[in-house]
Each structure stands twice: as structure tokens, then as C-alpha cells.
């Protein structure tokens, strides 16, 4: 059931998704939070996941991150069936999640944060020089210009710079899929633009990006696809070029339905 | 990197001339990263003050006294840094040392066990205590304040059980007594100094070599030589002073007290662990944000347990130093010192909020607290005054900590 659609740049989507979720279900006790959700994430594309509070967005990505496995449904990664049973499995499959908060240690510097948990060692001790070089190469490949020194403490960075470091961290890990939970929620206009730019460049490197956002302006600015969750059901999955702001608001609130989605 | 003309190289803080490096350092200090500077300043001011007030303060005998007086406190505050870094506390570290020494004395004096296995038994006891605390804090989730307060009380009882109330037992191990009461030969002091200088030059060049091999810039080499020179001059003066006879009687007393190289070795190893190993970095990470550390795949509980184990083991070492100095083990050993040790760490610039501080900060802080004690003692002021002043200094230091935390942009939310 691959939908062919026109993307922002006019090319036709014929790509195979990196991740394909089919009929995902998740309940907490008697409450069914995900009621048979389908979702595709494509390499080199930014997909948005939108929906009202409580729609199940966080629950859906927690399953992808392996922190809260799904009850049932199929996860295909590169067309292969995979059970995302733990964060380790998710990481091993190249899935990285950038959480909105609490993902950096303020008392450590940028290099230490980017490599946290997977430091490069040499003779059993931390190879600071090598990590420093790789960290700045990664930041440069993402055209990050706002950071003066990679040895700056994170406590001295702005919110946008912190989000930048968190995203660059996933790029450094050679992630194939990066999931961002409301990356711009706490940011001002200029910093939001910076982070969205970064998201775009990350996708341009071939990474499949899934971005959760409540801000439709952001979504229409940076995303290729938009997926709308409504009360645990995926009510629309469309290329942004084929839809409009008011349509998406309609799907989010349940006022409109999208006939092109098969349930 | 050829990421287009717009991509400017991102610095690493190692670039620039000596002057630029120094001004960058000064601006970091102004930004709130003061480290041990306030404590060093306090140490100098207090020393000058006591020198002016008491002719005995700056004598060789008193300097040697000050070193041995502060050694126990220094060791305990170094121990506490490992748990304060992860924003925990160990109020029982002092009495753990006390119980450890009670075990040692019972083994050596009564069971006639040789001193080395007895000492190892005490250290193992310390590790077990640390693992116990760590388990309750990291796995069960009881606040460390409560667990260690409980042990603080319980171990005082255990000391009474082991040694009987009012029991004072002489240390009958000459090797143990020697640590605080005997000195290195004169040449030994100079060898110690030479080893320190060689190690600091060697590690300096090794670090530069590694950075060069990785293709990242080094700071101007002059800065490294400056640090080596400061170390050589500082410890050179100290060794020279201690190598002269400081006796007030006929029997000459000279040489660096044996405790000095022992403490320096522990300080050096601890610092290498914190600065260069993955474990050390993860300790800072857990102190900065346990949640971020967990998400990065760090075994947070394991790090916490290890920190408590190191703290308790070094608490035993502190107990050894205390027993060596006093020459005896009592039921009340290690009771009073722990709060001073917390104070020393904080005064030295270790943040109570966790994640910031170095072992050497605790050592400097312990010197400050000891100078206050020693100097006021020389002025024959009542002991109460010393406690009052120490308390005041602690509150001042904690205030500096909180304020500088604000200034360096850290928010106050805790997780
Ligand atoms: N651990 C849990 N136990 C019980 N119910 C849960 C649990 N986690 C989520 N829920 C419920 O599942 C529903 C979906 O929650 P979820 O956090 O996925 O929503 P969301 O789309 O991320 O919302 P928001 O936009 O507010 O972040 C909510 O009704 C929530 O109360
Ligand atoms: Mg959510």
C-alpha cells in the first residue's frame, strides 16, 4: 500500500521506507492508546507526527525507542521484521530519539555530551583529542555555526544550541532514523529556524527523521510528510505538498477525515 | 573539512596565545567557574593573618604539624568528593573508618593477626559498607542522607560493642604509627619532589602527543611549563622547609612526614581516575543529570554503588591516618570529623549540587579548615570559636557555590 506522492522538491516517492509500522496496538490496562497504527519513515525525508494532546504520539515513539514495547503489530526495518524490545535493540538498528529535555549533562562540555556513553578510548583512557575532532567535524558537516568551542560547557549554551548538540549527537552516532520529540517547543523564532535548518540537513544526509510537533508552521516549513494521530488512530498520512494547514487542523481535531488512508 | 565557505572551524578552547588563554581562563572564572580559587585566596589570607598574630604560626614545626593535622581531614574530604559529585552524601564515612580501625585493632592486638591482612580486612569492610549504602540508595531508592545517618548512629553503637565504652586501645603496629609520626630521610623528600616533577612533565607531554596525534591543537607549551614550575617551586619550598631540623629539643626532627607522599599518591590516582577514565566521566555525568546519563546508556546504579564503595574505602584510609596520629583507637573515633570533611569539600569548591569539583579542591578546603583550627588554637582562643568560624566559612562557601551555579547558567531544577 505504498502511496506515491509528490514531495516538496517535486520528485516522486518511490523509496522504500526504513521503518514501516503496521497495525501497531498498545493498551494501558483497559485503555487502548494505539488502535492499529500504520506509519512509514523514509530515508532522507522529514516526516511529521502531529496530533492533539493524548493522541498517543509519545506512546508511539516510545515503542520505536524500545523503552515501552508495543503489544502487537509489525515493525519492519529495511523490510525485515524486528522486535524493538529494548533501547539496545533500537540503538543497534540505528534508531535515536532526541527528547525535548533532560538529554544533556549541563556540567559537561559539548564533546563529552556528544560522546556520552560511547566514549572513544585509547590505552584504557578517554581519547579526548579524537572525540574533539570528530565532534567538530560532525557539527561542521551540519553547518552549525553558532557554537564557538566544542569544549564549552553545555550550561553556557542557549536552548537552541543545546537542541543542536542533542541532534548532532544522534548524527554522530550514525543514526539512520532520528526521532525528535517537540524539538522547538521551548525555542524563540531565530533558534527554531536554526534547529529546523539542522533537521533538514540531517535528512539531506540520508537520515530518516520523524519529528513530533504541535507547531504546524514548523511542520509545513520543514517536513516532507505529515502523519496525523487522532485518538490512537492514524487518520492521515500525506505528503505536505498535497495538503494544507486547515486540512491538517481538521484531521487533528477530528473535524475532517482523509479518505486516502486505509485503515 | 570542506563544508563550503560558510563553515567556520569550531574551536576547542586550546587555540590562541598564552595571553588569550589566560584571558579566556579569567573570563571563565568571572563566569562562575572559580574552582578552588576562593579557597586558595582564603588560605593565603588566613595564613597571613595568623602569621601576623602568632609568631609560632609560620614556624617549621607548626607547618609540619598542620600537614599531619590536616591529613585525616583531607583524606575524608577526598573520600566524600566521590559521593558529593553525584549529589549524594555519606555521613557515615568517618565512623566507618572508626569501625574499620576497631576491627584492625581487635585483629592485631588480640587475634595477633599480622598488620597487612588486618588492614586489608578493614578495607574490605569499608568496601562492603559502601556497597551496602550504594544498594539502598541506588537500587531501593532511600535517600543517602537517611541511609548514612542511620549508619552514622548504628556504627557508633557498633564501636561501643566492639571496643566497650571508654575503651582506648593502643596501636601496636609500628608501621602504622610511622605514617603520621615518622619522616622520610632528607634525600627521600627530594626524590619525592623529583618524581612529582617528572610525572607532571611526562603526563603533560603525553597529553600533548596524544592531541597532536589526533590532529587537534595544543595549548601553548609555555602554559605547561608554567604549571610545572609552579608545582616545583611550591613543593620545593615545602620540602626544603621540612628537611630542616624543626625540633625544639635535642633530638632532631627533620624530613617530609611519611603521610605526605601517601596522600599525594592517593590524590594523584583518584584524580587520574576522575579525569581520564570512562568511570570518572560517568560519575560527573550522573552528578550533572542522572536522567541524561541513563538515556546515554550509562549504568547509573552501578556508578552510584561504586562511588559509595570508593568513599567508604577511603574513609577507612582516613581512619588509618587518624589512628596513626593519635596512636590509639577509641570507641568515639571518626565521629566528629565527618561534618568538617563535608565542609572542607564545599569550602574547596566542590559543588553540593553535584557534578562539579575535583579532588584537589577538597584537599585545599581541608587545609583551610585546618588552618582555621590550628591558627585559632595558637591564639589560645576557646575551641568554640574555631567551630563558629568554620561554620561561618562553610555557609559562605555554600553561598558562593549556589551563586556561581546561577551565574554559570545552570538552572536549579533537580531530578
Ligand atoms: N504509562 C501509562 N499508563 C497509563 N496511561 C498512559 C501511559 N502513558 C500514556 N498513557 C495514556 O495514553 C494516552 C496517550 O498518551 P501520549 O503521551 O502518547 O500522548 P501524546 O500524543 O504524546 O500527548 P502530548 O501531546 O500531550 O504529549 C493518554 O491518554 C495517556 O493518559
Ligand atoms: Mg507526548
Query: Which geometry of chain B do the CA atoms define?
Result: globular
- What gyration radius of chain B follows from the Cα positions, in whole Å? 22 Å
Low-confidence stretches of chain A: 1-8
- Briefly note the structural class of the backbone of chain A: alpha/beta
- Kindly identify the CATH topology of the domain at 19-104 and 156-166 and 174-253 in chain A: Rossmann fold
Given the helix and strand composition of chain B, which structural class is it?
A: mainly alpha
* Largest beta-sheet details of chain A: 6 strands, mixed
Could you say what the CATH architecture of chain B is? Orthogonal Bundle
| Helix-residue proportion of chain B | over 70%
Average pLDDT for all residues of chain A: 87
User: Could you tell me the number of beta strands of chain A?
Assistant: 12
If you average the pLDDT of chain B, what whole number results?
Answer: 91
CATH class of chain B: Mainly Alpha
| Total beta-strand segments of chain B | 2
* Strand arrangement, major sheet of chain B: 1-2
Residue fraction in strands of chain A: 25-35%
Number of domains of chain B: 1
User: Strand-and-helix sequence of chain A, N→C?
Assistant: EEEHEEHEHEEHHEHEHEEH
Bound molecules: adenosine-5'-triphosphate, magnesium ion
Instruction: Tell me the span between the first and last alpha carbons of chain A.
Output: 11 Å
Which range does the strand content of chain B fall in?
under 5%
